[in-house]
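The following record pairs a protein chain with its ligand, adenosine-5'-triphosphate.
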Amino acid sequence: MKRMLSGIKPTGRVTLGNYIGAIKPFVSYQDEYEMYIFIANLHSMTIYQEPKELRQNTKDLIALYIAAGLDPKKVTLFLQSDVLEHAQLGWYLGCMVNMGELSRMTQYKDKVSKNETIGAGIFNYPSLMNADILMYDPDYVPVGEDQKQHVELCRDIAERFNKRYSDTFKIPEPLVAKVGGRIMDLQNPTKKMSKSAETSKGCIYILDDIQVSKKKIKSAVTDSDGHIHYDPINKPGISNLLEIYSILSNKPIKDIEKQYEGQGYGVFKNDLAEIVGQELEKIQARYREITSGSYLDDVLEEGAQKARNIARKKLAKVERKIGITIKKK
Ligand code: ATP
Ligand code: LTN
């Protein structure tokens, strides 16, 4: 069985973008791959998190993974901070990456260009991400479009390490969905739907009130040409809605275009609002069941143990190779 690994940061309320771009694909992979999915809580610290909110977001995220259909019996689900080896391997790998390489990362460049005061964590975080990945030798890393560059850097660093020492890490492949890899903000469809966005109007949260989320779909920004056609460059709003529709209804975009030929945006948006509403209702019902008891703690404990078994061995191997370990056995 090929292995797959991915993580999501608990930096805010989980969005429809996270669900479509990350969580839903994970669910579809779980029968086919050996999967490791974790909450990237160390990464979330790159931006200040209010402690109470961080705790709640972390719990919600793990519950939503399961509510969306991930089965902890099939998938190893864990908290990054429960496996201390990530930070240690992150340090070694951080010593192997060049400042120039880290400076070219889009997420970092975006922050710099906005002249925000940024912590060193934002700059260094691809090294920790490299550790998260290389620790488990995955074949594939399913991510949204925005993370592809980080996985490519990870491949370079793995190759560098293997060449400098000896074969140690598997070279992972990023896996970006062709449809749904980049769901856009409903009010500004040239911007990614993001859980840490300043305003929530263009962003659907999985735990949103159902009526609120329907309203957000109905008031999504489109264009004035009235033709339901997929063209992300010239019709970003409608194209984004078509992607959401396609993923949630399991229908190809071409079929949806045909279905709404000659109809206005109103009908299409109303139908999509219903589809989104139904999907969220299903997840929210399951979420309420899961969060009432100690089930989540048990899942995380079991996941951490499984992950630690792998991480401990990998880190020991790395430390032997690089000369940190002085004991013979
Ligand atoms: P932040 O706004 O704090 O950067 P985020 O909403 O971008 O957070 P992440 O935790 O960075 O979410 O991402 C989790 C996963 O969800 C990643 O694989 C990422 O690529 C994917 N993802 C995030 N936003 C979207 C989106 N709008 N469309 C598709 N996939 C997305
Ligand atoms: N950096 C990613 C989250 C993340 C991740 C990972 C994804 C941290 N470690 C390892 C895949 C594999 C983000 O910002 N979305």
